[in-house]
Amino acid sequence: MFINSFGSLNAANMDFSIDVFLRQSWHDPRLVLPGPRERVAITNPQMLARLWKPDTYFSNMKDGDIHRVSMPNVLYRIYKTGDVLYSMRLTLRLSCHMEFREYPLDSQVCGVHVTSYANTDDLVRYRWLADRPIDLPEALEIAQFDLLGFSANETSHVYVTGNFSGLLAEFKLRRQSGYHVLQTYVPTVLIVIVSWVSFWLDPNAVPGRVTLGVTTLLTLTTLASGIRASLPPVSYVKAIDVWIGTCMILVFSALMEFTVVNWLFNKKVTHHGQSSFKIRKSVSFFTIL
Q1: Which domain holds residue 118?
Q2: Separation between Cα atoms, residue 203 and residue 198, nearest integer Å
Q3: pLDDT value at residue 278
Q4: What is the pLDDT of residue 52?
Q5: Which residues form the Neurotransmitter-gated ion-channel ligand-binding domain (predicted)?
Q6: Quick one: which of 76, 21, 70 has its CA closest to 43?
């Protein structure tokens, strides 16, 4: 299997897309070539349809397509010894169970499950190529992710219809933090700092301080809603939830601080006003006497 390119990972739908060259080979003694020819490529669609091919499918596939521009990207090559190479170019969208507890500093493991649909393991058994089971281009890039490594294993599936041989290619991916630092962490830190500006405002500037506190709180809520929209609804707490929750507590605390300070300030002013009134009343009384 040659990985031509990786598409983006869709966290909301828990899937990813991949462009691969699926290469399968087997030995068929009925196809031994007579004469001096070393190999022959079958390009006639009618002849290709009559030759035996394994019924390989991807068990975790959501959608897929065989490339047909400018002609079907399929190769069926027969060697003199009876060995057959069957290669095709596919674009697949595969499901991938993702874990978001450490999001956006998380790592994911996504796999490609290959097996036979109708032939049990006593008829067709899958094996990886021993020396190079998976080929990757040197300049492989994945949007927002780094490829940490991959593994190739043989699997066995037991169903009611029988035991089936299969293959599993797993890719370990780590999410890049640069995007989320600029789009999430820096804006939320700035919003918290802006909310703290109210500490240096005059306690009598009630409209300005209230507007500043409410605006920063609403801005943080809008930012959190955008982050949640890009993720599937899960029942556990994510790392980003802890961060956003902490920022909301800090912003709300700044708003509550102003409320307490304003109440204490008004209470102090009222107390001094009552004292002054009592003193003026006493002075006036003694003056009359």
Answers
A1: 2-175
A2: 9
A3: 44
A4: 92
A5: 1-176
A6: 76
Same domain, yes or no, for 8 and 131?
yes
d(CA 261, CA 249): 18
- Measured at the CA of 265, the angle between CA 260 and CA 271, to 5 degrees, comes to 125
Kindly list the distances between the CA atom of residue 47 and the CA atoms of 29, 73, 76, in Å, as whole numbers in the listed order: 18, 16, 10
Residues 281 and 185 reside in one and the same domain: yes
Instruction: Name the average pLDDT for the chain.
Output: 86
Same domain, 153 and 94: yes
Same domain, yes or no: 76 and 152 = yes
Is this structure's pTM higher than 0.85?
A: no
Evaluate if residue 189 carries a pLDDT over 90. Answer: yes
Domains contained in the chain, number: 2
My answer on whether 143 and 186 are in the same domain is no
**How many Å is the Cα radius of gyration of the chain?**
34
Q: Which of 146, 175, 204 corresponds to the end of one domain?
A: 175
Q: What count of other Cβ atoms lies within 10 Å of the Cβ of residue 217? A: 18
Q: Are 191 and 220 in contact (CB under 8 A)?
A: yes
Query: In the listed set 175, 207, 242, which residue is the last one of a domain according to the structure?
Result: 175
Write the pLDDT tens digit of every residue in 33-45.
888 888 999 888 8
pLDDT of residue 287: 37
CATH code at position 207:
1.20.58.390
Q: State how far the alpha carbon of 183 is from the alpha carbons of 113, 193, 194, 226, in Å.
A: 34, 16, 17, 11
Q: What is the pLDDT of residue 211?
A: 84
